[in-house]
Amino acid sequence: MKFPYPIRGLFALVAAATLAAGAAPRATAESVAERDARMAWFREARFGMFIHWGLYAIPAGQWNGFQSKNNAEWIQSQAKVPAAEYAKLKEKFNPVKYNAEAWVKLAKDAGMKYIVITTKHHDGFCLWDSAETDFDIASTPYGKDLLKPLAEACQRHGIRLCFYHSIMDWHHPDWGDKQPWRGNAENPAPDMDRYTNYMKAQLKELMTNYGPIGIAWFDGEWENAWTHERGKDLYQHLRQNYPQLIINNRVDKGRQGMAGMTKEGEFKGDYGTPEQEIPDDGLPGVDWESCMTMNNTWGYSAHDQTWKSTETIVRNLIDIASKGGNYLLNVGPTAEGEIPAPSVKSLQELGEWIKTNAEAIHGTLATPFPRAFPWGRCTRRTLPDGNTRLYLHVFDWPADKRLELTGVSNDVLRAAPLADPSKVVATTRENGKLVLSLPDVSPSPHATVITLDLAGAPNIQPIAIRPGVDGVLVLNAEDAKLDGTTLRLETRGKESNIGHWSNPAETIAFPVYFEKSGPHAVVLRWSCPADSVGSAVEVRLLDKDKQTVSSLPWKVAATGGWQTYKTEPIGVLAVPAPGTYTLKLVALDKKGQGVLNFATARLQPAED
Ligand code: H79
Hints:
The chain has 10 helices and 27 strands. It has 608 residues and is α+β, with helices and mostly antiparallel strands. The strands form 7 sheets. Strands 7-6-5-4-1-9-8 form a 7-stranded parallel beta sheet, with helices on both faces. Strands 18-21-26-23-24 form a 5-stranded antiparallel beta sheet, with no helix packed on it. The chain has a 4-stranded antiparallel beta sheet with strand order 10-11-16-13. The longest helix has 17 residues, at 192-208. The protein starts with 8 loop residues before the first helix and ends with a strand. Residues 71, 73-74, 219, 222, 257-258, 275, 291, 298 line the site of ligand H79.
């Protein structure tokens, strides 16, 4: 069975449900079209505001001489504050300067289309008047529901309201993972069934009293008390009761650490949640959202002044959009109810940029190019007539005003600066490259967008890798075209590599150009631990018709571990004639965990 895009997370489940007709419960028997309709607003939005607000804004990162390094909303855990003592903060919580209208306006003017607010963080304190607990806003001096005015302002301004809700709870006596400082410390038998019912009752309040809610944004799912069974049950419970609700993947146990994408398998959740990271590559067909802070904390910290520049924030938004994801950018309001001035300033500056460039972000699709450009990023849209508009986000305005695009086969209809469409950008072709001659404009310090309209759907040819002046063809992990859903480019470790080759049916390919025919020595740089040696792989050369014209078989040898790389000649590959080919790494079987980690390959005409 072949699907048009990699199948992960819910996609896999939808597919499975479709195949195993009748076996799946109603909530997962969603057709692809139904899912697309449910996810449509999220995919178009591209940009949202995260709000971390709660009692932790009062200590603001300080507790009896302890100073929080980051994540000030974790102060209770960081300073091991007993739950009863921490709970006294509610007697002081009085955010009289809270102005929901101003917050929503700030978000809207910055180009944000949705707001995700912490209804309850890990500390267990509730921002609304909950019938289920006294540890809530109703029992503070302020006394008024904080979510109601936000819901009303969102409705006025057409912003989707979404609710963050912590699964883990440091206050509730029934949360199952005990700590001496938590509210469950004195409870000999925390009851997770009772706790789950508490959550469901609170979620019912949240889902029914504030108008339609866009996303249920769970977090704190990683502790042992929360199981896959509970995650699956909560997901199905919510989908059944609120069919349009989008639920992040932290409802279940399938999140892969801070990288946040959903593991292969029967895991629930509609989208991946990288935290403080942007994935190296876009993930076609997979929904995701990177949540990030503007300094080093989610909840308000009085001393954290490590603010990111507006340039970084704008470029993060563009980078994420170019990879097909959403940017959920956080603010941490003070205990008085004010968004910190540096956040406001950055969001206003971002708003200035968005005013001109919204079209290049909202409702766009990921770049059609295999990777980012050295000068910036690309987003795209299909125009009503079926033609394509590329948005070239130029980070570094070239001094020679030349922008080169390789591999674009489409006819160019028109190119112009988005900020000033009356100025024409001339385009020419030089040696297969499309060259744009940029006009005189005052470039934005963040990114200047050029629109490039192409006839038809994007037709981007892979750029063949050529031998260097020394005659050696060098293939880097970054240049690989990965065919599969588990194979991944890893760039964060010591050495860039293609890893996670756990499914031998997946392949690693490179578009290559050989200047010489004849035998070429293949020198591979790879890693493989002792318990995974012996997989049979082949280096294959495929012609334009995808026919194998030569191949080099090899048995994977041990290097000492997944992190230990070795460089060795593995044999000789015959090149029948100079020209363009696809060089493919194919696994015929797999011994142990994975086939190998690929770092580089070098191909060199063999000496006679
Ligand atoms: O609400 C903000 C933070 O307070 C919260 N998530 C954002 C949105 C957060 N909780 N924890 N962390 C951030 C960092 C903790 C990460 C870890 Fe783990 C938890 C490391 C080990 C357990 C996540 C889950 C990464 C691996 C497993």
